[in-house]
Structure formats: structure tokens, C-alpha cells
Amino acid sequence: MTRDSGAPFYEFFAGGGFARLGLAPDFGCVFANDIEPAKARAYIAAFGAEAMHVGDIWKLTPSNLPGQAALGWASFPCQDLSLAGARRGLAAPRSGAFWGFHRLIEKLSAEKRAPGILALENVCGLLSSHGGADFTALVHALDDLGYRVGALEIDAAHFVPQSRPRLFIVAARSAPPSLTSAGPSEPFHSQALRNVVARLPDTLRKHFVWWRLPAPPKRNTQLADLLDDDGNVAWNSNAQTERLLSQMSALQRARVDALRESGKHEVGAVFRRIRVEHGERVQRAEARFDGLAGCLRTPTGGSSRQLLLFIEGKQTRSRLLSQREAARLMGAPDHYPLPDNQTAALHLVGDAVSPSAVRWLSQHLLAPLAGVSAARKRA
Length: 379
Hints:
The chain is of the alpha/beta class. The protein has helices at 18-23, 37-47, 98-110, 133-144, 191-198, 202-207, 238-246, 250-262, 323-330, 342-350, 355-370; strands at 7-12, 27-34, 52-54, 71-74, 117-123, 148-155, 165-172, 180-181, 210-211, 265-277, 280-288, 307-312, 315-320. The protein is globular, with a radius of gyration of 22 Å.
């Protein structure tokens, strides 16, 4: 892949560099960090080894970071904040890595070379974690460092055919009136965000910024548009497809049967989930036929792999979503080099941020905050 340019930025919890994909060409990475060697290898395969520093963020010091960056990006771990996890919050080891990031910014501030802008990305569960206390603690910590803090809830579905709502916290030394609003607005200031901001302590609430971000144009791609049809995909057997259908609720199965009877060709995304019915845990296959994939996840269990259900008139087929298809659903280009190992590739993608969502945020908020020229040609 080509080397990016633009205003310098640091990329923490970098993963495979999907934030970097979205920030280019407005921002150019001068330092990247991730603790997981497998993710670092993927990052290096995509961008080269020059910027990547593999290791624990708690062990980084300002001396590791070159110069002064315009932006510090941190997609810090979500496991302790996600609804799918134990929700131990910012005090837990993984999501608590935020404090390692905060400590580093604090030290850079003491040297008067902290980034003028910070952008943090995580699951929307951060808003409700510990009744909003974790979000309050995070806003308080950044406010104490002299930043004006605001947040936006952006769903990747605005840009790519995948339902993937994420929380983006943007903190800046200044909040120009041209980039702020007097209050919340659709579609990026959700009711959940408004509710937690309303409960902030008075001083934090008065300092909180409602960043202005324009609504994107209507998405022009559907799930089916990004799927492979080259004949090399591995289809499930008829028996496997029938088992999948048998795991659907009566309502879901009736919908599938109606589509089959209609003679239409439809593609649906399917997750297996555990539901409690009549006091018992039951595995259900749940399909959606709205042109979107469900939120991609890491393949930590059999139910985490997303399946595709193809209804082609009277014929019904199914298969697993491939790693390249998953990357497309994030907004990554086909020339992005995924790991050869399927599980590693799906883990990388499922843990990542959508470059398409990042690109919109960069183009309309981060780059203007950094003074990056709007005339810069975009990739």
C-alpha cells in the first residue's frame, strides 16, 4: 500500500490500521502502537514497519513518540464495555488501557507537545457502563488536561452495508463555532448520548461540546453488492442449510418461506444467538434481509461467525461470510493485505473501526480542527 501524508498523527491501539485508512490523506501516521503481535504484523504488512511500536501502552514514554502530532487516535479495547462482555468498565485491565493512553497524553502535555486533537473510538456501551459513570470519568479526565470534549455516535451503516454503531469522542484544545452546535442534532447525537450528557456534573456539562457533523448522503451499496460470486466460495451442504433454518423462530421461518414462495432472489445475514425461551436457553438463527450485514465480531465462538442465507426462488443456500467480504463491509479496499489465516483475518476485522466512518469524521471535523486544507485531494 502507498505511504500516506498529511498532518502528523499518533495511532494507539492501532490493530490493522483501519483508522489510518480512514484518516488518509488528511493525516499521516508518524507513530503506531499495539500490544498484540499478530495485529502488529498485519499493520506492518499493510503500511511497513517504520511507525509501528509493538508493546504495552503502559510501558510507552514520551521519548518513544516523535515530534508533536496534530492528532492522537485511540481505539481502546472494548471488551469490558461491550454488552456482550462482563461490563467491568474502565477499571478492568483491557478497557482500562484508556488510562495508559491518558497517562501518556498527560506526560506529553507537561512537555508542551501533546496533540491538539484527541479522537477515541469505542462501543456505544461506554455510554451506559456503570450507569454512565465510566463515560463521565473519561470526559472528566480529558477535560482536566485542558481539552474541550464532545462525542458522536456514528453507525458505519451510513457508509457501508453493515450495522456497526460506534461512539467517537473528540477532544480539542479549541472548539471553533463553525464546527459546533448549540445543542444536539441528528443523526450523530443519539438519545443515549443526550441522556448521559444531561447527567454530567454542571461544570463538565457546560464545557461539553456538541460537534457539528453533516449527515452523509444516502448509502448506495447493499450487502449483496459486496459478496463474491466467483464460484470459489465454500457452500454449506443442504443438510447444514436445513439445520440453520430449523434453528429459526416460527416468525423468522415464516418470513423465509414467504420469500421462497415469492420467487425473489434475496440475501440475508444470519447470526446464531442464545435466547431464553420458556426458561430454557435455545440457540436461534436470526436473519435480516434489509440489505445490511449484522455488526461484525471477532470469531471467539461458533455463534460469532456471520452466515449468509441466499434465497434464489425455490432454492435456499447458505455459507459463511469470507474474510475479504468482511473487510469490504468495513470499508477496507481489496488491496488491503489480510492475514492468510482465516481466523486471524476475521479477528483483525471484527476488532476494527470502519475506515468509511473515520473518513467522514476526518473530512468534516478532525481535518478542519487541525487546519488541514479542504482543497487537499482525497484518496
